[in-house]
Amino acid sequence: MAEKKRKKEISTASRLSVAPMMDWTDRHCRYLHRLMSRHALLYTEMVTAPALVRGGAVHLLAFSPEEHPVAVQLGGSEPAELAQATRLCVEAGYDEVNLNVGCPSDRVQSGAFGAVLMKSPDLVAECVTAMREAAGDVPVTVKCRIGVDDQEPREVLPAFIATMRAAGITRMSIHARKAWLEGLSPKENRDVPPLDYPLVHEMKHAFPDLHLSVNGGIGSLETVEDELGHMDGVMVGRAAYHQPYDILGEADRRIFGDTRAPLSREEVVLAMEDYIGRHVAAGGKLAQVTRHMLGLFAGQPGARRWKRVLSEGAHKDGAGFGLVREALPR
Predict the structure, then answer these.
(1) Where in the sequence numbering do the catalytic residues fall?
(2) Domains (range + CATH), the chain
(3) In this predicted model, what pLDDT tens digit does every residue of 290-302 receive, in sequence order?
(4) 216 is in an annotated binding site
(5) What is the DSSP letter of 168?
(6) Which residues form the DUS-like FMN-binding domain (predicted)?
(7) Whole-model pTM?
(8) Does 84 carry a binding-site annotation?
(9) HEC-encoded secondary structure of 54-81
């Protein structure tokens, strides 16, 4: 019963999720995002299984209890190692463990994981089977592309999803672009390959029993609402980082039906005071937190000054919440 309840809760949360983004969705970013939405599913940056298992870097799994529901994304391609890493993630208390089959960076390719795994669906099936056995009642999910390089997405994607379903996967996020492993940088891979939302929508019709989320190029809450007419969930990346309040500020009311009044932008900032105070008191730098807050007032009066004051002062010795208060738009 507990397992069913947990899976239902995390499945509901994934109606709207914030994508795993390297160097961006760290624990400070997630704490900030949680203040704006009580319900959206938040993902960690990708953590590699070798770093956890061989490198002993379990500090990478640290997070605040307030971040729930929170999912960890793993990178790897060795089933036994991914199983070990999954156990560490479950012990750390994550609500979901996700396997990265979408990242196109050279660093990821050289480790034989990420988007290159789209070419090896049977290996991915072995990986997720091992992860599921290690995860117990914690859901294991997959994030993938629609294809890589010269693959034909209309052939590759349904076959890949069918293989995942056969391996016991019930929830997937699909980035609606191909990844080009050679010739495009990771940044270009987020923009240059065309988006194919209709193909991803077709996958929902072809696999009605699976919970499928669409990712890639989602830039507004209105688009999230539109896409939920086709899909079970929507995963938002860069827009949720650069304009977090525009995506998350009204999300609980509009996506999850929560009638509680959302915090205003200023209330979100003030709610960060204790968190920032603890971080600085423990020896952390203000800029490690405030770099994620620069887009809070995007499009609002005073946004430029807010960014300037924080960008110029947050890295200085002794900088604390007083600087954040000073930067607030007046």
Answers:
(1) 103
(2) 2-256 (3.20.20.70), 265-327 (1.20.120.1460)
(3) 999 999 999 999 9
(4) yes
(5) T
(6) 18-319
(7) 0.94
(8) no
(9) CCCCHHHHCCCHHHCCEEEEEECCCHHH
